[in-house]
Specification:
With 134 residues, the chain is an all-alpha fold. It is built from five helices and no strands. Helices cover 46% and strands 0% of the residues. It starts with 25 loop residues before the first helix and ends with a helix.
């Protein structure tokens, strides 16, 4: 049941606990700094390489690449272009970069604050009630 909130490798607030942790995007930023580009996969064929039960991060990158290919003049394509330009210039603190950190979207639903931990606990309790009747 915890898999909805706890993906491997990220320190979240444990179920029933109220211990604060802070987000650490250091590894994500280091990867982008080394690449100097988002290096999106091929948006036309990437869905064929996901396999069974893919990790959420490649799904995010593939969805992003597909959105850019399907609408090259759209808002997502423009934001990707701004982020790539900032990375190419070595601007790693640009406001355009954080939206494309590899794990940002998946981490959005992880209980890293006390407030989010309360939401998590309520959701888990409701789910347990529906699934098991208690």
């Amino acid at each position: 049941m915890n898999a909805a909130f706890f993906l491997g490798g990220w320190s979240d607030i444990e179920e029933g606990a109220m211990v604060l942790t802070t987000a650490d995007d250091t590894a994500d930023l280091a990867l982008l700094k080394a690449r100097r580009s988002l290096l999106l996969p091929d948006g036309k064929t990437c869905n064929t390489t996901l396999g069974v039960c893919p990790d959420p991060v490649p799904i995010y990158w593939f969805d992003l690449a597909s959105a850019v290919v399907s609408n090259p003049d759209g808002n997502i394509a423009k934001q990707v272009a701004l982020a790539d330009t900032a990375l190419a210039w070595g601007d790693f603190i640009s406001q355009n970069i954080p939206w494309f950190l590899p794990t940002r979207q998946a981490k959005a639903f992880h209980p890293r604050s006390i407030g989010m931990a309360f939401y998590r606990d309520i959701i888990l309790a409701a789910r347990q009630n529906v699934e098991y009747g208690y």
